[in-house]
Amino acid sequence: MSFKVESEIHCCGGKLLKLSHDSSKTGTSMNVNVYLPQQFYHKQSDKIPVIYYLSGLSCTPQNVSEKAFWQLQADRFGFAMVFPDTSPRGEDVPGDPANGWDFGLGAGFYVNATQQPYAKNYQMFSYIHDELPTVLDQFFKNPSLDFLDNIAITGHSMGGFGAIAGFLKHYSSKKYKSCSAFAPIVNPSKVPWGEKAFGGYLGSDAAAWEQYDPASLIQKVQNNGTDRILIHQGTSDPFYRDQLKPELLLESVKGTSWEGKIDLELVEGFDHSYFFVSSFVPQHAQFHAKNLGLI
Ligand SMILES: N[C@@H](CCC(=O)N[C@@H](CS)C(=O)NCC(=O)O)C(=O)O
């Protein structure tokens, strides 16, 4: 585990750290940004929870760091943020043979690929949920930062899918205290982005797709408590009707223990951009802050 601090930037009341490290899961150097809030620097809290934010197609850790304004909310409530990259990168990492932006580099879909030539590097599920929290914990070695236990997950579009899938796949161990998403792909097996990615990374076996598809996963995990998933979706998002289709998640939970526990907020006129994401970050921050015991 070797981390490099590429830069340390004063931002709001805390600092944004741009880091890179060698990942054993992806076999590449991975970039990750971490925001440590003012409470960390002023020693105002002895256990700062962490929210993991998974970005969407074509993003690097910079898009969200620069355009979502999570930092203001992190200072307000006292949580840290982790902004991972969306895929492995490098000259030897295979990309999309069709040169698209919806598969390959910048589009790892947060799954563990089983198909060649992707399986070697595209182990994003294990990277995000296992390796990254562990190595961050070891790198910071600071008991006031909680990368492992009191944690939440959120994301945008492909990252919204990654957040919901990761939350549900770890639901029995309650790895994540809460989950929310901005314009997520909720049923990847049934939409073009997901069909292309799952076909390429997982092959043609329907059972392999189901293992990651939130609309299937949610039917297999029992919610006997008060957990809710918060989702915002703009009605003028060009991807809303063909790729995202949040209503498919509502349909899949009918008659299950999750019925009535998905808070889907359709927001009139908003698009798919960070103008949309940043507008609702304060609500998602409050939702997670509550579930992380900060308010
Ligand atoms: N690159 C695509 C857009 C893909 C896209 O909208 N990506 C979303 C996530 S799915 C995003 O966050 N883009 C980066 C940004 O807006 O900063 C295009 O050129 O049309």
UniProtKB/TrEMBL annotation:
Its EC number(s): 3.1.2.12
Main location: cytoplasm
Hydrolase as UniProt keyword: yes
Molecular function GO terms recorded: carboxylic ester hydrolase activity; S-formylglutathione hydrolase activity
Domain of life according to the entry: Eukaryota
Record keywords, A-Z: Cytoplasm, Hydrolase, Serine esterase
Entry annotation: catalytic residues: 157, 237, 272
Localization per record: Cytoplasm
Reaction catalyzed: S-formylglutathione + H2O = formate + glutathione + H(+)
GO BP term (any one): formaldehyde catabolic process
InterPro entries: AB_hydrolase_fold, Esterase-like, S-formylglutathione_hydrol
Any one annotated GO CC term: cytosol
Known role: Serine hydrolase involved in the detoxification of formaldehyde.
Family statement drawn from the similarity comment of this UniProt entry: Belongs to the esterase D family.
The protein's name in its UniProt record: S-formylglutathione hydrolase
